[in-house]
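Troubleshooting entry. Yesterday's outputs looked truncated, so today I'm pasting the complete records for two proteins to confirm everything comes through intact. If either block looks cut off, that's the bug. Protein one:
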Amino acid sequence: MAELLKQVGLPATAIAVILISGFLLREAWALMKSKRIAVSQQVTNYALEYINSQLKEFYLPIAARLKLSEYLFNLTQQWINDETDLFDHKKIQLQSEDNRALSKIVTNRLFLPVNRDIEKILLSSIHLRHPDDDADYQKILSHFIVWRVFEEAAEDNLISSYDGSSFLKFPAEQAEKVHSITDRLIQERDALYVSLLQGDIKILKSRFFNRNVSKNTRTT
């Protein structure tokens, strides 16, 4: 570059000014580009941190328990008598004088603990709900609470028994919405990780380019 300028006939001072100006412009452009990438990386990091909080503290724990509840439900259906539509001790060879023994085991030892966990998560971390999440959490909560209250009433002998088939039907539609938004957040999180990695590669390339330009300029 310097040799070319000499051939044109420019004085040494002008050549020096041109070379220095070019160097400074390249450095300023590289710095601005690097800062722009860094700001973008910082914004991506904030978004990634928030999505991870949503998943870890809210969606993944709820989704896992809803799937567990669904699995337990399908499992316990095998213990129901097709004719009476009630739990049948003979199905699993259970011996008890209490005709509600199997129902109590299924309800109090399997379902209610899982339901309580979901209740606690909803009440403590509902602020992490995604803006596009249209699941009716009030309906889910009501389902759990009503079921627990009726079971406690039966345990305290306030009622001898109850048929919850009409009002205790699991809100499967709402659970599906939770699973859907959870899957979406996982995809968004993975996309942000990719974006973050690509940004890191751009920064490395930019730094490598700047070092090479600086070396060539000094050599020239």
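Protein two, checking that the full record survives here as well:
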Amino acid sequence: MTDNLVFFRKIRILLTPLLLLTGNSIIGTVILLLLLDTSDCLSLFFKHNCTTNWNYQKYDKIIDLCHYFIAIFILSINGKIKKEFLFLLIVFYLWRCIGVILFIRYKDPRILIPFFDFIKELLVIYVFFKNNIYVYIIGIVLKIMFEIFLHGKKIKYV
């Protein structure tokens, strides 16, 4: 793996404890999750194609799951979200965990399409649209379309 990809992955891991500081702020947690998830994309400015790099893909998915676990834990203990929504977060988290395990086992990105990553989007919708079921449905459809675009073909990892 290139030095820049490793550098940005380390930055992302080192910034993870900041999630603990968001404590009572759902918006803070959402913003930090979005920033942490996109921080390693800065490596794209260095012209690295991380989509075909197996080590990058594997660790990216694992780090995402760690971030989500911490965020869900924090949001569950601060009591700022409804129990029904917390349950929904946990279901999507566990669903994604299954997908990541299968992805790592078979090294086929197409596996990630039905096991799409919807945690950040769920949180954004919850913060800005609360209980609008139509926004959740539209969000899921758009996310699946994005996953098909991103992971819809077999990739030979390097």
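Both blocks look complete. Sanity check on protein two: The chain has seven helices and no strands.
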